Amino acid sequence: MMTRITLVGVGVLIGAVAVATLDGARWMPTVAAEAASSDTYRQLNLFGDVFERVRSDYVEQPEDAELIETAINGMLSALDPHSSYLPPKDFRDMQVQTRGEFGGLGIEVTMEDEVVKVVSPIDDTPAQKAGILAGDKIIQLDGEPVKGLTLSEAVERMRGPVNSDITVTILREGADEPFDVDITREIIKIQSVKWRPEEDVGYIRVTQFNERTFDGVKEAIDELEAEIPEDRLKGFVLDLRNNPGGLLDQAIAVSDAFLERGEIVSTRGREDNETQRFNARSGDLADGLPIIILVNGGSASASEIVAGALQDHRRATVLGTRSFGKGSVQTIIPLGSNGALRLTTARYYTPAGRSIQAKGIDPDIEVIQELPEELAGKIKARGEASLRGHLEAEEGEETSGSFAYVPAETEDDQQLQSALDLLRGIQVNRAFPPDPDAAVPN
Known about the structure:
By secondary structure, this protein is an alpha+beta fold. It contains 9 helices and 23 strands. This is Carboxyl-terminal processing protease.
C-alpha cells in the first residue's frame, strides 16, 4: 500500500537530500484523487499533443524522461514554493536524511528568481566554515550558470564525492559584484540539538527537526539538570533561531516536552474532514522552570509550531524578532519506482487558532540583533511573504519577516544576553514570566 510522510520545513538541504527538513514521521494511507472532469482530459490531450510535437520536431533529440520531469516540476512550482517532484534518487536520499546524516556542503536552499538562494548554512559544516550566509544567492556552480536549472538539478550538481571541491559563485546583497567561494564536500552528520550551561541557565539550541530531535532535547535537559545544581538553575533558553523546520511529529514531541495539557497544533486541509488536532500529554521535562524561546527571520515552520504552542499556552516567553512565516504542511507521497511527490496539503494553526502563514510569530519581547559593520546593508529581512507564489495569508496583513543573523560569539549575542538577564532577574519585562491566566483554555 502506498504511504506518505508529513513534514514542515523550508527549502532543500544540499547533500543526500531533496527536501527541507524531515522526520521519522507519521505514515498515512494515500487518499485517492478526485475523478478528473472531461475538460481536464481535454487539457491532458493538449499536453500529449505538445509533448509529441516537441519529440518529433525540436531541433535536437530531447530525452523523454527529462521532458516529463520538467513538465511535472513546472506544474508543481506554479502551486507554491514548497511543492516539488522528487526523482527516485532524491527520494532515497531524503529517507537517509531523516536519520540526521547526509553528504554534501551543509546548506539549506530554495529557488528564487531562477537562482539558488541560501535559506541557512548548517552549523559546523563546510558551507558555514567557508562563510556562506543566509540570503546569499548562488548564481554559478564551477563556472556554469544556475539559471535554467531546476532546484533538484542544482542540488545534484552540488553533490559529489567526499573531499572533492566545488566553486560556488555568490551574489550577496550589498556586495559590489559576485565572488567565488571554494568548498570541499564532506559527509554531514547533523546533531540537531546542542547544549551547554550558561552558568546558572541551561542553553539548548535546536538547529532542525529530524528524527533525533526530541531525544536530543530530552538528553540536553537531563545533562543540564545534572550539571547545574537544582538550587541554582534559573531556567532554560530554547534557541530556535535559523532553524528552518522539520517533521511535524518532532515539532509536536518537542512542544509536548514542556506542556502538561492542551492542544499543540492543528492542521487543516482542503476538506473539513481532513482537520487534525494534536494534544499534549501530562509531563513537563523542565518541571515548570521558566523558558525563553529565541526566534528570528530564519525560524520557520516546525520552529514556529513550537514557539506558537508554548507562547499561546504561556509556558514560554518568545524573544527576538519576527519568525519566517511558513504556516503550511508538506506531505511526501511515494510514487512507486518513480520517486515521490512533495505536496503542500494543509495549513497549520497554533492552539489559539492563529495561522502564521506569510505573517510569522511575533515575539513577546522584541530584541533586534545589531549587524557587524561588514554585514551592514548586505543582509535583508527574510520571510515567507517574500517568496514568489507563496500561499497568501488567510486574514490580516502579510509581513516580511526579519533578519536571520546570529553572532558567533556569545558576548555579542544581544538576544541571548537579554534572555539570560531576564532569567537571572537583571532585566525586568512585563512579558516575563508569562501570565498563565492569559493562556489558551485547555
